[in-house]
Amino acid sequence: MALHDQSRKTASGDSGKAASGDSGEIASRLLAWYDAHHRDLPWRIAPRELARGIRPDPYRVWLSEVMLQQTTVEAVKSYFRAFVEKWPDIEALAASPTEDVMKAWAGLGYYSRARNLKACADLVARQGGRFPDTQAGLRELPGIGAYTAAAIAAIAFDQPAAVVDGNVERVVSRLFSIVTPLSEAKCDIRTYVERMVPATRPGDFAQAMMDLGATICTPRRPRCMLCPLREDCSAITSGDAERFPIRLPKGEKPLRRGAAFVAVRGDGAILLRKRGDKGLLGGMTEVPTTGWTARIDGATTDAAAPFPGNWRPAGRIGHVFTHFALELDVFKTMTDGAAPAGHFWSLAHEISGEALPTVMKKVIEAAIPGATKKQRAH
Ligand code: SF4
Question: Per the record, which residues fall in region Disordered (predicted)?
């Protein structure tokens, strides 16, 4: 049945109706565009390779999808290449110490993903090294939610799964002029996508939707004249595609403050410690810091340094996490003392290889410019 015949009333009473076309036509137009204009990505098997019988490796699909959660394609590319060079398959990743995985992940953010990645690799390797080929089976694994399960099922196993990320939400909101705020329209969007997924090439369809959203139907200034779905699109006829998806105004993120302490030994080593395994940045490495708090009091000054010393201000850095913004006042001192309990010295040429999250790299760079970029000695 034609998709536009099935258009539903949304919560706001809008019909959410495409300008023309049906689900089969939309899918075939999109796939034809994808064949000619898909992005070449290090984890992707291109349509011409699929036609030659080359199949996607579920390990690489899974690894890329976990890395891409909340991270841009450009940021992921070099990490993906480094991971598959070091750990070419799930058994190799499972055999590696968690600490090495955390170090390789450092800078990619959202570090619970790295811990779940390792836990998932361990489990799949123990179970024979094969990923489940269904969404339900994939969702049983650590770190795999509804979106990632759908993406792996579609791309690696050719299952007709509805893969809905932010790019797809934007394309569908525009195709059907969905005026319900996005936060309330997600179920409707999923239903539209489910109807569009073709029985053949569902993996390419999923990737084509992502590519369309990333390269043509962009958040600002969509390039509608180049879009393969312009004949199907409701928003283009109204001339205000950028208006979609509709978003409710966001509240400002709360601000937390604290102090961070960069202690430097005479040979350039920096004092570090490991965070606890649970919670924000769990298992990552940091310089000593105070708590991060909404209050402004003595607990966030050099009075809270990990040991007495000639602590000098070295600037202030800002970092934005998902739920709050952070400002850290950075203090620096030179010392030749022993590392306090729970801390260790990292040699100058080892710093770049430590599992330092981006916020800690900012802190160290404020105190010692270039310190996190020095290459590890071979
Ligand atoms: S025609 Fe424009 S708004 Fe509509 S799907 Fe294509 S790029 Fe997006």
Answer: 1-22
Amino acid 111: pLDDT: 87
Average pLDDT (65-87) is 95
User: What integer pLDDT is reported at residue 1 of this predicted model?
Assistant: 31
The model's pLDDT over 347-375, given as tens digits with 9 standing for 90+, comes to 999 999 999 999 999 999 999 998 988 66
What confidence score (pLDDT) does residue 301 get? Answer: 73
Q: What is the CA(224)–ligand 1 centre distance, in A? A: 5
CA geometry: angle 352, 344, 85, nearest 5 deg: 35
Residue 174 Cα, ligand 1 centroid: separation in angstroms? 6
Q: Looking at the predicted structure, is the pLDDT value of residue 6 above 50?
A: no
**């053949």: which residue's tokens?**
200
Residues 90, 192: Cα–Cα separation, whole Å: 35
Tell me, using a 6 A CB cutoff, whether residue 18 lines ligand 1. Answer: no
Question: How far, in Å, CA of 322 to CA of 332, rounded?
Answer: 28
Q: What number is the average pLDDT over the span 160-187?
A: 93
Are 121 and 90 spatial neighbours (Cβ–Cβ below 8 Å)? Answer: yes
Contact 158, 202 (CB under 8 A): yes
Q: CB of 330 within 8 A of CB of 316?
A: yes
Contact 310, 333 (CB under 8 A): yes
Closest CA to 158 of 203, 210, 206, 207: 203
| Residue 115, H or E segment | helix 112-126
Domains annotated for the chain, with CATH where assigned, are 3-243 (1.10.340.30), 255-373 (3.90.79.10)
Enzyme catalytic residues: 65
Please state, in angstroms and as integers, the Cα–Cα distance from residue 344 to each residue in 61, 94, 306, 308, 314, following that order.
37, 27, 13, 17, 21
Sign of CA dihedral 275, 328, 252, 106: negative
Any atom of ligand 1 within 6 Å of the Cβ of 29: no
Structure tokens at 299: 């607990």
Q: Whose CA is nearest to atom 4 of ligand 1?
A: 233
| Mean pLDDT, residues 186-200 | 94
